[in-house]
Each structure stands twice: as C-alpha cells, then as structure tokens.
Amino acid sequence: MDNYVEIYYQIEGEQVRKELLRNSLKNLEEPLQQLPIRRCHRSYMINTSKVTIIKRLEKKQVAMLKGIQEPIPISKTYHSHFESFL
Hints:
Blueprint: E1 5-9, E2 17-21, H1 25-29, E3 37-41, E4 44-47, E5 51-57, E6 60-65, E7 68-74, H2 76-83
Antiparallel strand pairs: 1-2, 3-4, 5-6, 6-7
C-alpha cells in the first residue's frame, strides 16, 4: 500500500542511526543525484564514499560499508551503473 524507506546514517563520531521515511527509493533517486548516493539494488541505495570493499559472497556481488556489518547486495541490473561511480 504505502512505500517506506529505512535510512541509515551517521553523524561524525556517532553510531549509525536508522530513520523510517514514507517514500520510495525511486522518488529519492533524483533529489539525491548530486550526492554520492547510488542505487545498487532494487531495494538498496548506498553512499559510494562509504564503500570499503566490493566482493563476491557465494554467487552474488556485495558491497561492505564503513560502520555497517551487513553486506549490501549489488544486483546485475544496477552493477554497471553503480560501478561507474566508484
């Protein structure tokens, strides 16, 4: 019914925080275009300046980010578009 987006962010020197927005990733893409935030999966957008490594995990490619323990998937659909910003 409604679109919700979880935003994870960090203010310098603080822990990672999470906020819930009533919006969609598609609606957020254009306003965030001037920032280093890019779509890497249909369910994820990440700050490319926070990427520490991109690696293969099993048969999928994932990005590891500073301050986030969970690997973020990079889908085949967004792979070439996403990599051009790294």
